[in-house]
Amino acid sequence: MSAPAPVVPRGRWVTYRQLYPYLLVAPALCVLALVLLYPFVDGVWISFHEDTLMSQSRPFVGLQNYRTVFAIPQFGMVLRISLTWTLGSVLGEAVLGGAVAVALNRPFRGRGVFRALLLVPWVMPPVVTAVIWRWLYHAEFGVVNQLLEPLGLFPPKENWLGDPNTALWAVIAANVWRGFPFWMTMILAGMQAIDPEIYEAARVDGARGWQLLCYVTLPNLRIVLTITSILSFVGNFNNFTLIYAMTEGGPVDSTKILPIFIWENAFKFTRFGEAAALATFFAVVMAIAILVYARALRLRSRDA
Amino acid sequence: MTRSATRRLAGLLFYAVLALFTAVVLFPFYWLLASSVKTQDQLFTIPPLWVPTAPTLGNFVRLFQGQFPTWFQNSLVVAVATTVIGLTLAALAAYAFSRFPFRGSRTLSTLFLFIQLFPVAVVIIPLFMLWTSLTLTNTYWSLIVTYLVFGLPISTWLLIGFFNAVPVELEEAAMIDGSSRLGALWRVTLPLSLPGLAATAIYVFLLAWNEFFFALTFMNSTEMRTIPVGIESFFAEHSVDWGLVMAGSVVASVPVVVLFGLLSRYFIQGLTSGAVKG
Amino acid sequence: MRSSVCSRRRFVLMGGLAAAALLQACGGAAPTAVPKPTEAPKPAAAAPAPSGTPTAGAAAASTTAPPAGSATAPAAAATQSAGAAATTAPAPAVIPTYTRAAGRSIQLKYWSQLQPETQRWKDNLVVINSFMEKNPDIYVTTEHPAFADFDTKLVTAARAGTPPDMSEVADSFPQLAKGGYLVQLDPFVQDIKLDLKDYYAGKLSTCYVDQKLYALPITADCRALFYNVKLLKDAGVEQPPKSWDELVDVAKKVTKNGVYGWGVQGGNQGFMICEQFSAFFIQNDGQIISDDQKKAMTDQPEWITGATFWQELTTKHKVTQPSAATDDQNAMYALFAQGKVAMFPSGPWGRPNVIDANKNLKFGEDFNVSVLPYPRDKHPGTCQGGWLQSIWSASKVQDAAKKLLAHYHTPENIAQEAASSMPTRASSTKFKPFNDPWYDPYWQTMPFARAPVPTMAAGAEIGTALYKLLQSMLLGQQTAEQAGKTFAQDVNTRILPKYASSDAGSGCGCLTV
Predict the structure, then answer these.
(1) C-chain residues within 8 Å CB-CB of A38?
(2) Which of A120, C205, C401, C490 has the greatest CB tally within 10 Å of its CB?
(3) Structural domain boundaries, residue A208
(4) Residue B124 and residue B211 in one domain
């Protein structure tokens, strides 16, 4: 996002030339405002009202909904599970995607084929991913147990999605499987954009292998990594479909991430006001977190 | 000789590891394909049937005898329309961001990202009410407009990168030859950013093709379902038609897998030439 | 692929029997949901008259009658009746045969969770078609949100002000009724002199919210014990268990070599509570919530004894399959059909599903049903399930909706629409297919069956909390006694007060934070 200082000259009359960029952005902006801004504002508005299906009057209640949701006993737990889910997924995807990208960055015969094949998990509809992984994880019919049992590392007939100790990690694994190609692609693209001359220069200075990775590749990937991690973080934090279709938050709440919790409050308990309060609160928290994160990385890159 | 031998060995090892990894990654997809040609009782054998004996296309026959062709068509219409319209809007906006840095451009591009932070579960009811008041529920438009908005931030951002990579001088040359600004965009910048456009198009297409929750909420009639919602409907109260679920899942994923396989080169090329340079 | 559909439709329209035969031949290759040829109902079986209700074997053993049957038979009737000619654009096979173009000025929108291709829906369609035949001015359009999302769709539609005119209702029913979204039906019932005494009391009671009637039941079901005859015989057991002690005994004998005596469906809230757990406290006269809906009863000995028995099947006697916590009803049928699970409770719809999962099984020889075991000094009993129908207040065609509701609720039509499930009126049981001895265990259980949680606005939240509780009991995290006491406290101090305040109508400030 390169955005140098505004160059609009001061003037009494806005000329067509000055208006031009705004006209170009206008269609996209209108649609965005209609579809995102309106529901967003409406969501915030609802969060200050008592809004349930049980009454068609929706009185203003101030911060009541916020106080109610903070007092829900599971609140802290949902937060913890959400963070584990998000960070676990982002880290897993980043490490796996990064490793594969490094492997695929060197030229070899058949590279294109591998690159295309490894994109398959990302392309499959999440609903389908959930169906197939539930099947793979099944204690009796599942392939995972068929493969792992001979190794003797785990108790036999482990019910991966039915055991609160393993369920969260099992859905994270499925999610990493689904999401790593995104990281792979972004990092691969980033690495191919690095000028080969920089590597040459580093090699002349005597850098080898890991040193090249740490001192040349990673610093040059900073922008890609920043952007990818933000997108991945937001995407995973708000990911609803996979867990909804795999465990619906169970067993015993062990995979109850925030979007599921919000959905439950809104659609099962029909407490729209409280659901909106939860959503608003977390949107604000996330926005602040991401601003701080992006700012920190940008400052560091400027210092460098 | 020893040196070239170790090299060759290392090369073989590399291939072996990569092939094994790819096989593991592709296994769920293979399992889907294999399951789709099994009969319901073959699906439930213990131990599982690794390679289907007596594969049958019966599930696919039944799938296409039902309403699935309509759902496929719905998904296709929505995804293609979203891609075309979304790309147009994103290209215009990205061109503005790329060529005319203007007041508020940075704020706007940041805003694009932040509004997406609001969980879908809460946005969905206001949005549904909006479509209701515009009498757009149960139409393709409700989904197309929604999806293109969720695709816009990222596709605009991707395209900004690609456009930045195209030298301004080329456009200026075209404009000296009498072309308008948009004409220059159309005739010079877009053709030069083709890999980038392909990358963005795939991204938007995928988003529209795979989405479930909006499609579930906005479409009421059975004939207006998209594929993911259609697949969900095979799960009934007391029975699941796994044959249909598996066959439907195959039909849902194979076209995008093939499309992506063919275009993956451009996808990475596009990202490389544009966006990742910031 | 489109052309294949078109040609199919053309077949359906052109040739009645030929088409049916062709479709059957086609479907014969497909493994599931196809009745055995000998049991297939004749196309005429779908005609509206009660005599035409599907035969016993067909209804129970088939999930898909020839689509041509239900589509063509009323079509023929339509062409005969004046003004209702189906000569305009051919309706897809799954849509009612009458079109709006046929001079029908009133459009009535009906939502069902049943999918158009299913036998259950085709059973319903017969009733809807006969209704349209009787009422030449009304056209019923149907929409079919999938079962898993049905309630979400109802809630969204209600909140956005776009509900159907009439629909089946699900978990959100008490909230919808309380919020004024549904029409109160007491005056209607008086007007048409509907004999409510003929309805199973346990099911009918779930239609009342705050002592007012907001729905009528269309199905009322209960559970019986499915058991694998051969597995029991191999373990030296000739008769299915009748009491709790026998159940434990038999289950223990059967559990060996990867076979499990008792199947648990813990992967879905509805089934965990209804299919699985509730029978045991219901047989033992326990309750989850008191009749006056004022307090939780899970700290009472009746509930604790039943819950402990259920829990110990898994935690103490270890006769439950390892995948219990995630298995849904389908996985259950599959495990049972594969001989991995010897006994489990299910409704009458389970028979075709078991056979689908293993074509070699024969009902009566390989597997059978009996009354779910109960304490020696008590009575049978299981959860009572079933679907309700309501009319929406926002509907502009409430009169037409009431006509349809009245049409549905004759003993004949209830028997017809519930043919692949269980009817909600006692007098419907004399019709086919319910006069089959296969239903006997169900009829024996029916008088004692009831809903685990009463119909109340707090029900959704209580159900969710209960599901979590049952999962943790199943996993052995706490004993039934601890669980019941914690749960009662949570319900009494946190959940019920929230709803008590909304009952009082005061908006805010009443919650203890």
Answers:
(1) none
(2) C401
(3) 74-303
(4) yes
